[in-house]
Write a structure and sequence with these properties.
Helix content is about 35%, strand content about 15%. It has 5 helices and 4 strands. The two termini are about 20 Å apart.
Length: about 160
């Protein structure tokens, strides 16, 4: 798997995600929303990876159905990969209810169960990853590193094929 970094356009000074979404659409970026239950690891990591690796084409966002807090090990393993997630906060999926994403990627099967009628105006796909928080016997930095690498491989392959 290549770790080649694409050169991104200048980052917007907009910090609110809805404003960042509007800015990305106005600038002609494709948009993707990653959704999982807690918005604590999988969706946060996917958002950060896409913005870091494909930020010249895609603007990524993340949300959860039951937002928790961003897991410190997710932040740590992303930092190891050169991606800073310091200060990231979780968001509820309702924050993006009126946003029309080009792609919505469900990262866990619980999202469909908890929000079966949620309107996804763009293409919706499921790319399922195990929740590292519930893998108690495997809960370690190694688990998060493996998750990071798997997310990077599968998500970038999917978005590059679009």
């Amino acid at each position: 798997m290549s770790r080649k970094r694409r050169v991104s356009p200048p980052k917007s000074t907009v910090t609110d995600d809805r404003e960042r979404f509007a800015d990305a659409k106005a600038r002609g970026f494709k948009t993707v929303l990653f959704v999982c239950t807690g918005n604590a690891a999988r969706s946060q990591m996917a958002e950060a990876i896409v913005n870091h690796r494909l930020g010249d084409v895609w603007a990524a966002f993340s949300a959860g159905t039951i937002p928790m807090m961003v897991h410190p090990w997710a932040i740590a393993v992303m930092k190891e990969a050169g991606i800073d997630m310091t200060g990231k906060t979780t968001k509820h999926i309702d924050q993006f209810k009126d946003c029309s994403f080009d792609r919505v990627v469900l990262l866990c099967s619980d999202v469909e169960r908890l929000c079966p009628n949620y309107p996804y105006p763009g293409e919706k796909v499921s790319i399922i990853f195990h929740d590292p928080v519930v893998q108690y016997e495997l809960l370690s930095l190694h688990t998060y590193r493996r998750l990071r690498d798997e997310i990077e491989e599968r998500i970038l392959r999917y978005l590059n094929g679009v």
